Description:
Chain A is built from no helices and 11 strands. Chain A is globular. Chain B folds into 2 domains: about 160 residues, no CATH class; about 40 residues, no CATH class. Chain B is built from 3 helices and 13 strands. In chain B, the strands form 4 sheets. In chain B, strands 1-4-7 form a 3-stranded parallel sheet, with no helix packed on it. Chain B has a 3-stranded parallel sheet with strand order 2-5-8, with no helix packed on it. In chain B, strands 3-6-9 form a 3-stranded parallel sheet, with helices on one face. In chain B, α3 links the parallel β10 and β11. The longest helix of chain B has 15 residues. The C terminus of chain B is likely disordered. Chains A and B meet through β1, β2, β3, β4 and β7 of A and β11, β12 and β13 of B.
Amino acid sequence: MLQNLRNLTIEARGATFSVANGIAFSSIFHFDRDGNLTFQGSGGAFVGNRSGLQPSQESGAITITSDVNFTFHDVTCSGNWGGISACFVGDWLVNGQIDRVTAPSVGICFASLL
Amino acid sequence: MFSIPKALIFDAFLFWAVAGSAQAWNSNRDASGPNQMVRPSVQRYGVKCDSNGTPGNGTDDSAAFLTAAAATANREGFAVLATCRIAQTLTINVPITFGSTGALVVDTDKTVTINGVITASNTQQVFRGGGTIVAATAPFVSVGWWGALTAADPAVAFRAAAGSNRTYFIPPGSYTFQTVQARAIGGGTIITSNLLTDPSCAENSCTSVPYSYLDAPG
């Protein structure tokens, strides 16, 4: 969790993220109560992994909660984000922008927390 | 007969050595890169830097590092060109440049806080050991400095590099997170379902909480 941060620019060009098998209710990145946040993921990917998970157990690539003034550019969710998995999860958001998302194999593109 | 002082020759060599190792550095950091100035080696101030990189190995350079910081405060900091052990909690208030073989190895339960620009190759692990290194004011950090590219669980490095007012650089590569540290957030639910079996929700059946591989400890 990257929590209570301000003026943060994340450069993740060409970086590929995945998770170990069998951990449910997880998110690779969780941004909580952050402000002025920019994420750039061009050329990289969040690779979904449902191995070891029950059908009812969710997972997410990026969770954003209670964030203000944020942008996410060039996010690719590849691999298996099927079932109730989500590329983005979040709520309580102000003035955000998410663009250039590639998510060909996700159950949910953006899941609300409520 | 004109002669060049030895100290000047030494500094010129350090400039060449550090600048030469900087060719792979990210262009984002040019403004704070070593080409801007010559930074003296920390070993000129009594620092031994004789650790082999294993936690606890080598001379404790804590006091000498503080001496070096004080001595170089008006010279924009110093360069670390070898592996140095820090066995005490301390704060360094000057910029630090790491050469291609430079690193700090911090003892377990000790914390080194750096107030200043940190310059190193984006992919080089310069922070090691069981202790904590806080880049408090660095405008640019790379998770590679904490070993994200080589660690069994890169999540530890990702957590350590977090902070406000910075560019948080993640070098190209593959990162498979192994650990989850749970934290509840505001009672919200993630994909509400009666089928969820999140054990942390045993006392509150209406919520399950998003776990993050990057959750901060505690």
